Amino acid sequence: MLLSGIFPPITTPFYPDGAVYYKKLESNIERYSRTPVAGIVVQGSTGEAILLSDAERRDVLKSAIAAAAPHKVMIAGTGIESALETLRLTEYAAALGYDAAMVRTPHYYKNQMHPANLLAFYRTVADQSALPIVIYNFPQATGYDIPAEVVIELANHPNIAAIKESSGNLDKVRKMVEGTRHIKRTATVTEAFAAVTPRMIQAAEAEARQKQEKESRELVSVEALAGSASAPNTEGRRASSPVQGDATSKPSSSAVSVIGTLKTRQKEVGFQVMVGAAHQLEPSLALGAVGAILAFACPAPTACYEIFAAIKEDDLPLAREKQDRVKQAVQRVVSELGVPGVKYAMDLNGYYGGTARLPFLPLTGDQKKSVEEAMSNLRN
């Protein structure tokens, strides 16, 4: 599957008493669905997944996908320390209709996480998962940095589609891009080369059926008004043009197929390197990364997308200008203040951020002022 573009790893909203605020979660997702982001990651590090109970993680996954637009790629964070529990949560996400699973590196027993351990862990998960797997490397939080050589070897597994590399190490990004160039796969995409997933195909097929049923009812109604309901003009119906997007319609060209209301084609993709460091988005994309999962996209999705779009248009000066525009804010909001900073920046930009769970502390007045200054020219 195609994972190109910008993905916000959404936060989990809470009431003041710490309970999950599901209505605000749904509201945030509905708003992200109207932005140019390619998709949404649910229950990543910015979502405080590690601070939630198993029941809360499942309920958040369920509420999030129900609120998302069908054309957005939905990635579930399902990584837990053991392969068994990771598979259980991944199976649940698959049943909900998620498009991919993001699995962070096991790290609690980091001194025993040798290459053989990581190879066995990810291969076991990928072998049994119904969803494509995205490796998630975040050494600033886990204290463990998966070696590029291990990633390159794992990339050969047919069900491991990508990595989210959050180390900020550009040399490592370059090494992984170059080391996986030999991997050739195909993905279904739209005519405009946007991602198409099984969930999107199901939605398109359902929409096509609804259109057919509506047209059928309208045809019967017209015939009844004309006094011919007892002898329907079946020949006339055969002559009428098919519903656009009819699941049985033939492709308009040899390169295009019609599935429901979707016109699709095939695109060659390899192992996809995504990054998680917004302050290095432009150079990472220039090195061959295909997209990014960025905490800073939670309060500023459009600002992040503009960098990606400039690179896609081969406008490097504009991409660098857009990168410079966000660099200071990323440093203050994400790198220094973390989840509480991201949530306050979201409050400033019309999303619901709210408070974070302990052991996070609320921002001080001076910290809030610094976020306001950093975000002053980045209102979305």
| Backbone shape | globular
Rg, Å, rounded: 23 Å
Q: How would you write the strand order of the largest sheet?
A: 1-11-10-6-5-4-3-2
Structure class: alpha/beta
Low-confidence stretches: 229-253
- According to CATH, what is the topology of the largest domain? TIM Barrel
Largest sheet: 8 strands, parallel
CATH superfamily placement of the largest domain: Aldolase class I
E-strand count: 11
| Span of the ends, CA to CA | 29 Å
Instruction: Write the H/E string, N to C.
Output: EHEHEHEHEHHEHEHHEEEHEHHHH
Mean pLDDT: 91
Could you describe the 3D structure shown?
This protein folds into 2 domains: 233 residues, Aldolase class I (TIM Barrel, Alpha-Beta Barrel), CATH 3.20.20.70; 65 residues, no CATH class. The radius of gyration is 23 Å and the shape is globular. Helix content is 44%, strand content 14%. With 380 residues, it is of the alpha/beta class. The protein contains 14 helices and 11 strands. About 7% of the residues have low confidence. The strands form 2 sheets. The chain has an 8-stranded parallel β-sheet. A hairpin with a 2-residue loop joins strand 8 and strand 9. The longest helix has 28 residues.
